[in-house]
Structure formats: C-alpha cells, structure tokens
Design brief:
The protein has 108 residues and is of the alpha/beta class. Strands 1-2-3 form a three-stranded parallel sheet, with helices on one face. β1, α1 and β2 form a beta-alpha-beta unit. α4 crosses α5. It is globular.
Length: 108
C-alpha cells in the first residue's frame, strides 16, 4: 500500500453492522494519514450491490465527509465499479473474488 491508491471495500456480503462512531473516526484519521496523498484527492469506493449494503454505508459517507480531499463513492454494479476505477470488468471480477481480509470467527 502507498498513498494515492484507490481504496475498494466490497460490501456485497454485508448483512448487519454495528458502528462505534468514535473508534471509526480514529480509524479513518489513521487511514487518511497512511493512504491519502496530500497532493490529490483520495478515492474510496464501496461496492454495494444490495439495498441493505447501500443503506449501511450511508453513515460511512457522512463520516468520510469530514475529511477534505476524500472522494467517497458507493457503486451498485460491477460495471459501475469498472468504470469508476478505469479497469476492465474482468479485473474487477478478479478483485472481488479475492478475500484480502479474512472474516472474523463466528460467534456462538
């Protein structure tokens, strides 16, 4: 990772969310310090193909609006994501097929 890269979050499998706003703000500040190039906008793309995933990202949009130069986008289709990222659809499908962050263990 390096500053200036576009960040992509795949929210297709999101079914529920609990948000600690203060902890999330600290995390966002850390991410901005690590990943935002001060010379240009930082593009953050959330892939949200379902109505539920889109509704759960509304709070994220509001929180990201606190940072100057962060362009937050919610994209509903793979084609829209490909267009936004300037990549062929096949690259987007490969990206979405990869698990970069393992899911947390299930709780009983």
């Amino acid at each position: 990772m390096r500053p200036g890269l576009i960040s992509l979050l795949d929210c297709a499998g999101v079914t529920d969310a609990k948000l600690d706003v203060n902890a999330r703000l600290v995390q966002m500040e850390t991410l901005c310090n690590m990943l935002k190039d001060p010379q240009r906008d930082w593009r953050v793309a959330y892939f949200c193909p379902t109505k539920l995933s889109r509704s759960l990202t509304d709070m994220q949009r509001m929180l990201w609006s606190r940072w100057q130069g962060v362009r937050f986008e919610t994209l509903e289709s793979k084609m829209a994501l490909a267009s936004y990222l300037g990549q062929p659809l096949s690259v987007i499908e490969d990206m979405l097929a990869c698990d970069v962050t393992p899911a947390p263990p299930s709780q009983p």
